[in-house]
C-alpha cells in the first residue's frame, strides 16, 4: 500500500481510498536523443519523438486497459489525458459508463470533466473532486493503481455505489502524468447488503441469539450466540439447527409447540404477510424465559422475501411481572443473584442487571477492621457480622433500592430516588444503627463501617469509581461517611 493521504479530502467516510502497484510496460519505442543530431536536423528529430510519444501513449493505453479488464472491472471506464505541465486536456467516458448511469450517447452525457462532476452526489461532490485533484497532484508519491469507493447519481436521480481502479500512466522521460484511466463497477447491491447487515448486527445485540437466514437454501449467518446454543448439534440447515437447539435446551413441555411452529413454509408465509412471527418458551439450560422471533431480513427488487432474521430475546424480567410465574422466577433469582452468605444481591446481579441502570446515588461501604473481627471472633463470627450488617442495610433502604455484597466485607447500595440531604440522613442513621449489632460470644466487639457516596443522576457504572474514592477518604478516619457530588457525565 502506498501513501493515501489524499483520502483526507473526504470527511466521515464519504469515499474509501486505497492504492496498489500496477504492471510495468517496458517494451515501448525509445525516443531519440535530440542533442546527438546536428542542429539543422533537431526539429525533424523532435517531430519524430512527438510521433513516437503519441504511438507509445496509444500502446500504453491499450496495454493498461487490457490489464484493468483482466482485474475483472469490466463495467464503466473513463480516460483523462494531461499535457507535460499536467493540465487536463481531455476526458472520455465509454458506453458502459453511460449505460450504468442511465444516459444514452454523447449528447446525453458529453465527454467532459464537468459531466463526471455532474454524476457525483451533490453533498459529496466537492470532497470527491478534491480527492481527484489531490491524487493528481501527488501522483508521483502514489503507486500506479488507486482504488476508490463512493456514490454516484444516475440520470433519474437514484444513487448507486461504485468502486473502481484508477491507473496513473506517467511519461518515462520526466515522470509527468500523461494519462489517468479507470474502471467503474456498480456495487450497490453488495453495499446495501453490507449496510443492512450492520443494522442486523445492531439488532443482534438486543437478542441473546440471532441468525440471518437465506430462505432459498436455508443457509445462515450467525449474528449473535450464547453458550447454550453452542452446545446444540450443528447443521447447515437453519431450521434443523433451531430444532437441535430445542432438543438441547428447551423444557420438554414446550418442545411440541416449538416443533410445530418451526415449519419453514409457515414461518416464511407469516413473515411475508405480517412482518414477523414469535413463540415463547422456557430454557432449562439457562433457567430463563425467551421469546423466539422471526422477522423480515431482506427482499429482492421485486419485493420477494430473500432473507429472514431469527432472534431469541430474553423475557425473564417481563415474566417477573406475571404473578402466575412469580414463584418459579423468584427461585431462579435466588439461585444466581443472591449472595449465599449475606442473603442480599451479589456481584453477578450488579454486572448483569444493574451496572448500566440510571440512579441518583451509589454508596460503597466496608466493615472497619474486619481482620481484627475475624481474629477475635473467628471466621464464623466474621460471617455472622457480615450477615447482620447485610440485614441491617437491607432493612434500611426502600423496596426499590438495592443492597448488594460487593465482595468480602464490602457492600454497595444503589439509591434510585433520593435527595442529597436524605442521603446524608440515611448514612448518619446507618452509622448509629451499627451500634445495635453485637456478638453474644464477643460482647466487647463494636462494629463500625466506613461509607463513600457518589451523588448525581448517572448510570451506576459511572458512579462506582467516585464512590470508591470517597470510601477511601472515610477509611482514613473510620466510622465516617464522605459524599462527593458530581456533574452528570456526558455519554
What descriptors fit this protein?
491 residues, alpha+beta, Beta-Lactamase, Alpha-Beta Plaits, six-stranded antiparallel beta sheet, five-stranded antiparallel beta sheet, elongated, disordered N terminus
Protein architecture, described:
There is one protein chain. The chain has 491 residues and is α+β, with helices and mostly antiparallel strands. The protein folds into three domains: 5-186, Beta-Lactamase (2-Layer Sandwich); 191-319, Beta-Lactamase (2-Layer Sandwich); 338-485, Reverse transcriptase/Diguanylate cyclase domain (Alpha-Beta Plaits). It is built from 16 helices and 16 strands. It has helices at 42-70, 95-100, 105-108, 113-118, 122-137, 188-204, 227-230, 238-249, 252-261, 264-274, 316-319, 326-337, 347-354, 370-395, 420-433, 460-475; strands at residues 16-20, 76-82, 88-93, 145-153, 159-170, 177-186, 209-214, 220-224, 276-283, 288-299, 305-314, 358-367, 402-407, 410-415, 449-459, 481-485. The chain has a six-stranded antiparallel sheet with strand order 1-4-5-6-2-3, sandwiched between helices. The radius of gyration is 36 Å and the shape is elongated.
Amino acid at each position: 500500500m502506498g501513501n493515501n493521504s489524499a483520502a483526507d479530502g473526504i470527511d466521515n467516510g464519504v469515499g474509501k481510498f486505497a492504492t496498489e502497484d500496477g504492471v510495468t510496460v517496458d517494451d515501448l519505442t525509445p525516443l531519440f536523443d535530440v542533442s546527438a543530431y546536428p542542429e539543422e536536423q533537431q526539429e525533424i528529430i523532435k517531430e519524430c519523438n512527438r510521433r513516437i510519444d503519441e504511438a507509445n501513449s496509444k500502446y500504453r493505453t491499450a496495454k493498461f486497459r487490457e490489464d484493468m479488464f483482466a482485474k475483472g472491472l469490466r463495467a464503466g471506464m473513463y480516460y483523462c489525458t494531461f499535457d507535460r505541465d499536467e493540465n487536463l486536456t481531455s476526458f472520455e467516458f465509454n458506453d458502459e459508463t453511460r449505460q450504468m448511469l442511465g444516459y444514452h450517447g454523447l449528447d446525453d452525457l458529453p465527454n467532459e470533466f464537468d459531466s463526471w462532476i455532474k454524476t457525483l452526489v451533490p453533498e459529496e461532490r466537492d470532497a470527491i473532486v478534491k480527492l481527484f485533484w489531490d491524487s493528481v497532484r501527488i501522483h508521483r508519491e502514489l503507486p500506479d493503481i488507486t482504488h476508490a469507493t463512493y456514490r454516484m447519481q444516475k440520470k433519474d436521480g437514484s444513487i448507486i455505489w461504485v468502486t473502481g481502479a484508477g491507473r496513473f500512466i506517467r511519461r518515462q522521460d520526466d515522470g509527468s502524468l500523461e494519462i489517468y484511466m479507470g474502471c467503474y463497477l456498480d456495487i450497490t447491491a453488495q453495499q446495501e447488503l453490507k449496510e443492512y447487515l450492520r443494522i442486523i448486527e445492531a439488532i443482534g445485540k438486543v437478542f441473546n441469539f440471532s441468525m440471518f437466514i437465506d430462505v432459498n437454501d436455508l443457509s445462515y449467518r450467525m449474528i449473535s450466540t450464547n453458550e447454550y446454543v453452542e452446545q446444540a448439534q450443528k447443521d447447515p440447515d437453519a431450521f434443523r439447527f433451531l430444532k437441535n437447539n430445542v432438543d438441547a435446551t428447551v423444557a420438554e413441555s414446550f418442545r411440541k409447540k416449538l416443533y410445530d411452529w418451526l415449519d419453514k413454509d409457515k414461518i416464511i408465509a407469516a413473515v411475508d404477510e405480517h412482518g414477523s412471527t414469535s413463540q415463547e418458551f422456557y430454557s432449562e439450560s439457562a433457567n430463563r424465559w425467551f421469546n423466539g422471533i422471526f422477522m423480515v431480513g431482506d427482499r429482492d427488487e421485486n419485493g420477494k422475501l430473500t432473507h429472514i432474521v431469527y432472534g431469541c430475546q430474553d423475557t425473564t424480567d417481563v415474566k417477573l411481572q406475571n404473578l402466575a410465574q412469580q414463584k418459579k422466577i423468584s427461585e431462579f433469582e435466588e439461585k444466581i443473584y443472591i449472595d449465599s452468605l449475606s442473603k442480599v444481591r451479589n456481584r453477578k446481579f450488579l454486572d448483569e442487571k444493574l451496572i448500566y441502570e440510571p440512579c441518583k446515588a451509589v454508596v460503597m461501604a466496608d466493615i472497619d477492621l474486619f481482620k481484627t473481627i475475624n481474629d477475635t471472633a473467628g471466621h464464623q463470627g466474621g460471617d455472622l457480622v457480615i450477615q447482620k450488617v447485610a440485614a441491617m442495610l437491607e432493612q434500611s433502604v426502600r423496596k426499590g433500592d438495592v443492597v448488594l455484597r460487593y465482595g468480602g466485607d464490602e457492600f454497595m447500595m444503589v439509591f434510585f430516588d433520593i435527595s442529597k440531604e436524605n442521603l446524608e440522613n440515611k448514612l448518619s442513621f446507618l452509622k448509629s444503627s451499627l451500634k445495635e449489632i453485637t456478638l453474644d460470644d464477643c460482647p466487647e466487639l463494636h462494629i463500625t463501617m466506613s461509607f463513600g457516596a457518589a451523588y448525581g443522576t448517572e448510570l451506576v457504572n459511572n458512579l462506582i469509581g467516585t464512590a470508591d474514592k470517597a470510601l477511601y477518604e472515610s477509611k482514613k478516619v473510620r466510622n465516617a461517611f464522605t459524599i462527593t457530588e458530581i456533574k452528570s457525565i456526558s455519554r
